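Here is a typical protein record:
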Amino acid sequence: MVVFDRVIGSSPGFQQVLATAQSVAECNSNILITGESGTGKEVIARIIHSWSPRRKKDFIPINCSAIPENLLESELFGYVRGAFTGANSAKAGLFEEAEGGTLFLDEIGDMAWSLQAKLLRVLQERKIKRIGENQFRDVDIRVVAATHENLRSEVNHKRFREDLFFRLNVIPIEIPSLRERKEDILPLARYFLEKYSEANQKGPRFLSLQAEEYLLSYSWPGNVRELENGMERVVVLSHESEVNLEDLDFLRENENSKVTAEEFSFHAEEWDHTRRILPIEEMTQKYIQYVLALNKGAKNKTARELGIDRKTLYRKLHT
């Protein structure tokens, strides 16, 4: 079993991920880490950095989906004084801040097309130019990118540049979902129970046999992140040392309320006179859940495909 910060895994698939990470850590090639949301892509990127000759320099992460396009460009490349309204002084970008170290570009699939071209140039020439500046600056960094999306499909749909995909995908690492590494579920659960019991100054927690069986049978759509959050919730809310099936009711509620792509259909002929007519708001919510299921829980991609912003998506999901 391997433990590195939040990384625990003895399953063959996860062991292969770690073996690949160790074998490529010494080189400078670009790496593309793929996997569902919550599988630990940033943790693997940090492991690669920690095993690399760049470990004494900074590891700089940035989530490309969390920052608007114009702000993301200034964050990455920096700017000179007067480059735009509000640029009262010069600022180095993350490419410069990561000098000698590793720049981690999370959710690279959500990067705007125009910015993809600029990133491609950096990867090819290892030079950057701050916004509003004519001078090129050399950068010595390693780029590790990550995405929950299928970038090959994004390329086919003209939403991601093919040349950038090949430039990033020099060394691909795919992290298996938690439901594909069942051997790791209980060790992870016990680790998180211990972690949050200590953090909250509570006594030790242990799983009942029924709780263990349920954790192994649950589908874990949110992967390791969902498991960690769930165990933290159990520690905070429960008062007994033994974690019982009742303590996991919130997971059972999530599973019962989940709308899967297979369960949902809009075919009119299926709605006969015995079906109740749904209010438009409820129908909208169900359709959003349907698209979310198709996208395996990827909220940014779902919002983009539905033509709404992320805040609207959250609001409609919880009305």
